[in-house]
Amino acid sequence: MHEDIQALNEKIKKESQFIKDITNEIEKVIVGQKNMVERLLIALLSDGHLLLEGVPGLAKTLAISTLSTIIKTKFQRIQFTPDLLPADLVGTLIYNQQEACFTTKKGPIFSNLILADEINRAPAKVQSALLECMQERQVTIGENTFKMDEPFMVLATQNPIEQHGTYPLPEAQVDRFMLKVVIGYPNKEEEKKIMELHSPINPPVASPCIDPEAILKARKVVREVYVDEKIENYILDIIFATRYPEKYGLEEIKDLVSYGASPRASLYMKTTSCAHAFLMGRGYVTPEDVRAMAMDVLRHRVIVSYEAEAEEVSSEDIIRRILGKIEVP
To answer: C-alpha distances in angstroms, 44 versus 112, 164, 176, 292, 316?
Structure first.
């Protein structure tokens, strides 16, 4: 078994070399925001969708469009607005008078990387149309169903400070996002570098360095990353502690949690931990990989109670308490 792990380790080290090339190209354009870039790559390798939360101007759109350039995929930015219709997203049937028949006009969702900008501004009908694309990887227009191209990934952004004219996302949809990443301001040195780098005369540009087939191949390799039974039990303990905190010596947070994490959390925690190990060039998952991914996998799945809101306790505070309590294998 030890020899198998060693061989797998060598294979992962070799197969994950392209990550450095992607990171180097992104760093030509994006200053700082290493956590966001890393989570973008993890979601891409894990075949999952990503929800980004941050104030405007933090390079969310730039990071995603740059990534699409680097991996030579199609990119579409869709601005979500209160008057957006499902047809504006997925397409519609148009009547052709000359041929006396309906033809399908595909919408902007038919791309590889989709940026759903300010996703919480669109009403429920649009969200339900997007949900089919995210979950089933297909779109139904009239009587025809079309499969999405691979890789297919939805990266949604929402603004945490502006609630006027927004619709809270349904919990079922939020749960479809593999990760929710909260991004903050750059520090002073990073912001100075941004000012110097992004001049209007000669803006930085990333170069393509990998094709989509290499991403699909890397996903298969990520699935080979070894996860020990102790690590799987550690993941389960964390997830179950969000549902039944009193069984894990966390009675003080029992009344602060309305709903714990869903079974998707267990699956996504394992998958993203494997992807994190792959980024680190390792063929096996460690507790550090699990802890690194726990916050982004769980922050939108742990629903706090009114008592928690009254005491100003967030889902992140609860996750930190759980991680501090559960014994690391």
So the answer is: 11, 32, 15, 17, 24
As a whole number of angstroms, the distance between CA 185 and CA 258 comes to: 31
pTM for this predicted structure: 0.87
What's the pLDDT score for residue 12? 86
DSSP-assigned beta bridge partners for residue 104: 93
- Name the burial class of residue 17, with classes exposed (0-12), middle (13-18) and buried (19+) by CB atoms within 10 angstroms of its CB: exposed
Contact 165, 82 (CB under 8 A): yes
CA distances (Å), origin 284, targets 17, 38, 260: 16, 18, 28
Chain centre to alpha carbon of residue 186: 21
Render 233-285 in DSSP notation, one character per residue: HHHHHHHHHHH-GGGGT-GGGGGGEEE---HHHHHHHHHHHHHHHHHTT-SB-
**Residues belonging to the chain:** 329
**Helix axis angle, 2-15 to 212-222, nearest 10°:** 160
- Domains of the chain, first to last: 25-215 (3.40.50.300), 225-325 (1.10.8.80)
β-bridge partners, 93: 104
**The residue type at 137:** R
**Nearest to 250, CA basis, from 262, 237, 263, 261:** 237
* Residue 50, beta-bridge partner list: 155, 179
For helices 34-46 and 18-29, the axis angle rounded to 10 degrees is 140
Highest mean pLDDT among 51-60, 119-128, 305-314: 305-314
Distance CA 184, CA 54 (A): 6
The pLDDT tens digits for 278-295 are: 999 888 999 999 999 999
Per-residue pLDDT at 3? 61
